């Protein structure tokens, strides 16, 4: 009986080991310097978390110290600017927690930054970011201002808005001390030697001419930040060039795709490999219903064939609202799976928890090629020929 039980257990473990061996396995090949993974928790502030993570890595790349900068300092100032635009547009604009990467650069340029320990932005009784009430209050307040039946606005409404942010995120500091030296938010940011104007946004769509700039038409781009438009091959080549030169990439993507398998630690765009299927397997595949094919395709139990992404596919998913301004993340390196296929290593802002890679995941090149809205890099990360085409020095 014991021998039979032992044999059965060995068989179970063998099957489990075999299944594990068939899963995705990644080996990092190049990773830039990074700071710890953050957690946006219950707040729509991925654009700030990823943007600050990117800036922290840029400080490290330039030989500066490891710092923990305040995402909520950026959120506060960007939110206030968004609210003012909403009122100026008589309520015909977006005023929500969502933002764009240009918002981060605008705040750094105009307002500076504070350390996390100085401005944590949690003034509402919880240890994690929970913004549902704040978002509702701001929306109601600016809505009332924008739609109020008066000919002129009072001089009090901006102070009232600031009061809301003071109450929920805390009063912003005028000065603070770091390592025995006193700073203002502006002088603190200036101490890192980062110039926001050195960073550019890149996209790839055909409804605007290539090698020109345009404001991507999505609701969260309320500041109408401009992006350079590149053909898809150059669009992807820039990412690889940046990472290979030691630069990271601030990445805006849509993560609603069923191939975004966050819990499993990767994101892919799978395609049925009918060419390599044997006769009986191909016959079985052809006989499946569309729903069964979808389930089979997205089992994602091991690396397989992925779609070849074209410029037309990118444009179609954007035009059909399948690729939206969904989530901001930070591409920090390159990796390969067990088949030698290359992926991007991505730092997310959903905390560490019990995640398989401690808050990181791996995005395939087809996923990035299809689902990227835009990305931000230092202009020196551009290949020389592309930099010339864009008229940058």
How would you sum up this structure, described in words?
The chain is of the alpha+beta class and 393 residues long. It has 13 helices and 13 strands. The protein has helices at residues 2-22, 46-61, 71-88, 101-111, 132-147, 157-169, 185-190, 232-244, 279-287, 290-297, 311-319, 365-371, 384-389; strands at residues 26-31, 176-178, 181-183, 199-203, 213-215, 226-229, 249-253, 260-261, 266-267, 327-337, 342-347, 360-364, 372-378. Strands 1, 4, 5, 6, 7, 8, 9, 10, 11, 12 and 13 form an 11-stranded mixed β-sheet that branches. Strands 2-3 form a two-stranded antiparallel ribbon. Helix 3 (71-88) runs antiparallel to helix 6 (157-169). The longest helix is centred in the first third of the chain and has 21 residues, at 2-22. It is globular, with a radius of gyration of 24 Å.
